[in-house]
Task: structure prediction
Amino acid sequence: MPSVDSQQLAELTARARRLAVPGARRVLGLAGAPGAGKSTLAGRLVDRLDGLAVLVPMDGFHLAQAELRRLGRAARKGAPDTFDAAGYVALLARLRAAEPGVTVYAPAFDRALEEPVAGSIPVAADVPLVITEGNYLLYDDGPWASVRGLLDEVWFLELDDRRRVRRLVERHVRFGKARPYAERWVRESDEANARLVAAGRDRADLVVPVS
Result:
């Protein structure tokens, strides 16, 4: 599992904590290629921030499998046009607004089902920091181009490609794909998406090396 060392984690936690100002609402984004460890780091930050932050993953905006089949995009699941990007942008704008007394519910993604699950993540109005993570936070095409302006900071997680690909294959296998299928999927789909993600690296506020 991709990770940062204890000193890095302490420094990143301190930086995130500076964003978590009570009485305000900030949004921190973690971007990076598939398998770079975004959800792992995001979860660790939330745990260490002791109730000051909540995690809202971009993956909750995957289109449902039935819709991907209808559109002819199921074989490219994970590409930019297989998400409800406009819906994600609308949620980020609503989260930034943090209407007093209103809990916003965000979708999650169930990897076992390979489906988004609506209304899964409550974000109370008094939580000062939302952490969101996903591939396309720095992608600048179509509705994705609006995401960057809704984030106070974006960190780009960078992991050696050979390690990342190997761990990505293992993740697919762990969630039920046969290894030859997982290897082909990573080579033909995930890595095509990784190249799109890498193009946004220079738009990040911070590059985080991951091991």
About this structure: The CA atoms of residues 35 and 165 lie 7 Å apart. The chain is about 35% helix and 20% strand. The mean pLDDT is 95. Strands lie at 26-32, 53-55, 104-110, 115-123, 129-134, 153-159, 206-210.
